[in-house]
Amino acid sequence: MSDPVRTGLPVTVMEVRPHLALGVLDWESVLAIVHDPRLVELSMSGRVDLGLGEYGELRSQVQRLIGTGATAKAKNIGSYAEYLAGGIKGKFGHGWSVPPLTLWCPRPLAIDKSGKTHLPLRDLIIAVDAETQIAAMHRVRKGYREYGLEGFDFAQVNAAFEIFHGVSTSDARQIFHDRNLKGVPVDKSLALSMDARDLATAVTRELVATTMVNLKGEVLPFSRFVLSSRRQIGKTATEWVTLSALRTLVVTTLLGKSGIQSTSGGVSASDLTEELTEQQVHHEVSTLLAEVIDRFVVELSERQAIATPAVLAGLGAALHHAMPWSASGTENPLDRDGVMRLLDDVRWERDARYWGGVAATVRSDGKVTWGGGAKDSGYKVYEALTRPDSRVGRRVRGLPELPTDIA
Q: At what angle do helices 131-142 and 37-44 cross, to 10 degrees?
């Protein structure tokens, strides 16, 4: 085993178990002891000699490359830096968070009973997880003017860290593996449904919180029937629709057909075609969708086709025509009453006769599956709802196909 680190940056940590400790460092100290991975890769490329070859070799054994600006990891650095800068400037209040940095030091730390120890100052500490965060921190620090942080004291901003010390390269690689593969990735739509700063999420949550439904003569809060913790509803669940599916309806009501491809992305008021306050947007969307929920409360409670993400996506795109900011009026001019009339004779039963080839797939054994998402089937649903004389439009209304039906 290597000799313990006994000199360097003094710090106090809490030991979790042998070879693992937790602590807090200010940004200036973090960036002094952990190199910018972008510079490390530049040095390793041979184009510029920054004297980081040995450090780069060690890093390459436990980390993936960031690569060029076209890679997903490289692209994420910029948005992460914007987020960090906004957070430390107070833009997000208390509602922002970053994970602790996961660091690795091949040499063991000499930690006394009070937790005092030293971290090596050069070339010995590698980020085995949260490296994108490290790169973003370096970007903000170097480009502080770009982020509106002139005169800002980065020594006043703290970052939590955990450090694995005195463990082998093989162990560090295993930690990288476990951190990246052992967890179950959160579905993006479900994560977006938790975003308090997203316009579509805010409207969705307001709709859920304020809407009452009349079910069999009993007035109940709609929130009782919305599942927010998972993306799919079990067969025996009492909920009718998931929060992420309801957000899909809101996104397409806000953005129209273009929103079908944007259901897994963020939405802001600037995405609309007119200058409107968020309060105006909330009112317009919430009142219309509350009316739709009330009108189809039975179909929703029975979890008919209208409760599926694909149908909700197409339904919202159709309802978008009734929004004051709709830019699709010349393509298919409809007012609020006109849009609602289009829904009068739609058959919402989960039946292949109506939805096969539109929002459902009919298998060779005759069974129907509803696995298609908003992006897969939303456009067909939109066409079916807004073009009653088309082939799919007649199908979802239970009408026979015409010999020369409109494609």
A: 100
